[in-house]
Amino acid sequence: MSEEAATGNNFLRHLVREDINQGRLAEQALVTRFPPEPNGYLHIGHAKSICLNFGLAKQFGGQCHLRFDDTNPAKEEQRYIDAIKEDIQWLGFEWNGPVRFASDYFDTLYEYAEHLIQSGKAYVCELNAEEMREYRGTLTEPGRNSPYRERSAEENLALFRAMRDGQFDDGSKVLRAKIDMTAGNINLRDPIIYRIRKQHHHQTGDKWCIYPTYDFTHGQSDAIEGITHSICTLEFEDHRPLYEWFIANLPVPAQPKQYEFARLNLNYTVTSKRKLKNLVDEHVVAGWDDPRMPTIAGMRRRGFTPGSLRHFCEMVGVARSEGVVDVAMLEHAIRDDLDKNAPRAMCVLEPLKLVITNYPDDKVETLSAPGHPNRDDLGMRQLPFSKEIYIEREDFREEANKKYKRLVLGKKVRLRNAYVLFAEEAIKDEAGNIVEVHCSYDPDTLGEDPSDGVKPKGVIHWVSASHGKQAEVRLYDRLFNHEAPDRGGEAFLDHVNPDSLRVLENCWIEPSLAEANPEQGFQFERTGYFVADRLDHRGDKPVFNRTIALRDTWGKAENA
Predict the structure, then answer these.
(1) Per DSSP, what are the bridge partners of residue 10?
(2) In sequence order, what are the beta bridge partners of 32?
(3) Own/partner pairs for 133-142, CB < 8 Å, 24+ apart?
């Protein structure tokens, strides 16, 4: 791949290359980091950030660190840490060195806080939350100095140490940086850098009852680790002057630089962690890894592949301006990947029994079919064929117009990879429902056209009634039926798609599918792309999730 092709629509690649060309960065000296907060599962937006940070490091021979921003123990859990590590590795990336935590640097950060106090650049403040908002000012009005701002360094140091020692209640005091209450950038109006939280921490236990804020932790952790390019989303652009102020006023060992890019916004999708947690807590979905969720774990369970997600992130690119990406682009990426790589198989979702009247009662043939039409390496698969088979209920009609290319009474159809059938009779129950179809078959049509010259107009899939296996199939669709479910004041739960999941428990599959490995994906011919559920699929109880339909049904609906 050429340098230009590798750089593509990613301004940060151009920036790093320019830093190297201008001598600001040595070859292979790039160090990036991915800094998630362990308070939930990662989502598709994080996938873009992962691909960006790890991808830059890989392209330029540098390093990418995994560092958990664990400064808020009340909302953080070990299970989130474990899930995040698993997601990154599943996407195909590996971090440099050990897993890092912001809490690894709590001792150093505390020393930095005392340094600011002793320099006259931080003070202990006792304003409550309401008073803090009042003193802070607005976007058009400057803030006012806290009445506690002019305490001496000695008094502030004593109070801060008493905070550390647990002598004050939660929320009664905070440590603030002393910058400028009249600054146009509100983030510079004496921001809080430490607060009292008597919470057990998943890494440090009960050692601390004061915790640094994200703004105070982030840049200093970057500096301690020697990060060269601290890459954030645009929401942190207004925080960059504060990032730089801390770096300039503390004895940090390095001078990292912050760069911002536009976050990934998808239509028909919600990516706020708070709202995703709400979906879980309200039991709208079955958990963070529900296949309808835009989490990496959810998409993995849905049957998305690491390659398709990486390709999607590359297609989206990295820009400085915000925009909304059509979720159809993500769906195209997974369809394209699975079309090229997923083995073919047959599954009947809503079965209708078909009896071949002229086929011997005790005969069973083993027919062969390609594992993939364009992939010889996927070999051939074996299909048992018998007198009774199942076809899709929608693939039979007693009468139909010429546009219907399936099985109709008095007409022919070809079974996929098998014979041509002629429909003779529909058997009905007392209520008039069709329960069985009787057909005859032409034994000379295995891979051949009928000798009478009348070719069937359609091809349908099937499964042997005697040798097929029953399976549960979960038909997943988009979780939201509104293009912007949480924008413009919309109540996003009002836009949950009531048809986002339909469970079919009486499906019939090729017998070999029962032995599929969890997470193994297939194209069920004429139906869609499916995956063996990574948690529930077993040989004696097969469970498949629909990854995506063969075509964009949403696009057709919108056009209509």
Answers:
(1) 318
(2) 64
(3) 135/181, 136/181, 136/186, 136/189, 137/181, 137/186, 137/189, 139/186, 142/181, 142/182, 142/183
CB 159 within 8 A of CB 173: yes
| φ, ψ for residue 279, nearest 5 deg | -60, -40
Instruction: Write down how long the chain is.
Output: 560
The DSSP call for residue 188 is G
- Give me 139's structure tokens: 């976007």
User: d(Cα 99, Cα 33) in Å, to the nearest integer?
Assistant: 11
Dihedral of the CA atoms 100, 123, 72, 218 (nearest 10)?
-40
Question: How far apart, in Å, are the Cα atoms of 225 and each of 4, 114, 218, 219, 487?
Answer: 30, 21, 11, 10, 37
pLDDT of the residue at 559 = 54
Q: What is the DSSP string of 371-418?
A: S-TT-GGG-EEEEEE-SEEEEEGGGEESS--TT--SEETT-EEEETTS
C-alpha–C-alpha distance, residues 541 and 521, integer Å: 17
The answer to whether 537 touches 518, Cβ cutoff 8 Å, is: yes
Q: What is the per-residue pLDDT for 486?
A: 86
Q: How far apart are CA 547 and CA 45, in angstroms?
A: 19
- Please name the residue that has the structure tokens 């997943």: 476
User: DSSP of 503-547, one letter per residue?
Assistant: EEEEEEE-GGGGGPPTT-EEEETTTEEEEE-TTT-BTTB-EEEEE
SS3 of residue 167 by DSSP? coil
C-alpha dihedral sign at 382, 387, 388, 390: positive
Q: Quickly count: other Cβ atoms within 10 Å of residue 403's Cβ.
A: 6
Which domains are seen in the chain, by residue range? 3-104+217-263 (3.40.50.620), 106-212 (3.90.800.10), 347-461 (2.40.240.10)
Residues of the chain with confidence (pLDDT) below 70: 1-8, 489, 556-560
| pLDDT of res. 280 | 97
Closest CA to 439 of 425, 419, 428: 425
How many Å apart are CA 395 and CA 351, to the nearest integer?
Answer: 10
Please count the other Cβ atoms lying within 10 Å of the Cβ belonging to residue 7: 16
Catalytic site residues?
37, 263, 273
How high is the mean pLDDT of the chain?
95
Q: What is the per-residue pLDDT across 389-440, written as a single tens digit (0 to 9) for each? A: 999 999 999 999 989 999 999 999 999 999 999 999 999 999 999 999 999 9
- Report yes or no: 477 and 499 within 8 Å, Cβ to Cβ: yes
Taking the C-alpha atoms of residue 176 and residue 245, their distance in angstroms, rounded to an integer, is 13
Query: How many angstroms separate the Cα of 277 from the Cα of each of 267, 314, 494?
Result: 19, 28, 16
pLDDT for position 356: 98
Can you give the pLDDT at residue 558? 54
